[in-house]
Design goal:
The complex is a heterodimer. Chain A is about 0% helix and about 50% strand. By secondary structure, chain B is mainly beta. Helix content of chain B is about 0%, strand content about 50%. In chain B, the strands form three sheets. In chain B, strands 2, 5, 6, 10, 11 and 12 form a six-stranded mixed β-sheet that branches. In chain B, strands 3-9-8-7 form a four-stranded antiparallel β-sheet, with no helix packed on it. The chains are: A mainly beta, B mainly beta. Chains A and B meet through strand 4, strand 5 and strand 9 of A and strand 11 of B.
């Protein structure tokens, strides 16, 4: 089946630093990638949708200057949490889909802890 | 906007028995998709089953089946012959088009008692 790799799986950093998370589709061309956020014991919330070569579309309430998304190729999207603070600590999961009504394939997620 | 409601925060079932997880949704679209995802403690998202709204026949995947009631906007998941490995969080989700993100319910924590 389709494989999506997400890296890193866990990152701990100091408040004020920026953190980049990568999401790669390993065996298919991901025309669209999605970024979700999941707080402990809660559901996944869609943060943004990115199409290859286009600017990301952010959901209401998500700060685009805080969460920078780049989708420069059909196999890679990155999420950069800029000037991270403890309230940004969460589990971030990406998913990817190809053209048409293909199912979304999820990465294994990144646990972000800001001290 | 789409919404998904899972009214059962937690369910418990004896191993080998059958359990049904409920899900209702709201959407103004006529063309949409419905999903059940499983999230074990590893937090990996595993697709359990999917249903296209235009299909009247209920989807089935081995021990997993759905009861899709389009008029009632209900999409319940039935797990037959429950196994210890079925223990996890189960999320119901909907999606409009192929390039749209998923809207998830709050999840149901399924406990399998040996």
């Amino acid at each position: 089946g389709a494989v999506v790799s997400q890296h890193p799986s866990w990152v701990i950093c100091k408040s004020g630093t920026s953190v980049k998370i990568e999401c790669r589709s390993l065996d298919f061309q991901a025309t669209t990638m999605f970024w979700y956020r999941q707080f402990p014991k809660q559901s996944l919330m869609l943060m943004a949708t990115s199409n290859e070569g286009s600017k990301a579309t952010y959901e209401q309430g998500v700060e685009k200057d805080k969460f920078l998304i780049n989708h420069a190729s059909l196999t890679l999207s990155t999420l950069t949490v800029t000037s991270a603070h403890p309230e940004d600590s969460s589990f971030y999961i990406c998913s990817a889909t190809g053209q048409g009504h293909q199912p979304q394939h999820f990465g294994d997620g990144t646990r972000l802890s800001i001290l | 906007a789409q919404t998904v409601t899972q009214s059962q925060p937690e369910m418990s079932v004896q191993e080998a028995e059958t359990v049904t997880l409920s899900c209702t949704y709201d959407t103004s679209e006529s063309d949409y998709y419905l999903f059940w995802y499983k999230q074990p403690p590893s937090r990996q998202m595993i697709l359990v089953i999917r249903q296209e709204a235009y299909k009247q026949q209920n989807a089935t995947e081995n021990r997993f089946s759905v009861n899709f009631q389009k008029a009632a906007k209900s999409f319940s998941l039935k797990i037959s012959d429950s196994q210890l490995g079925d223990a996890a969080m189960y999320f119901c989700a909907t999606r409009q088009g192929g390039a749209d993100g998923l809207t998830f319910g709050k999840g149901t924590h399924l406990i399998i008692q040996p």
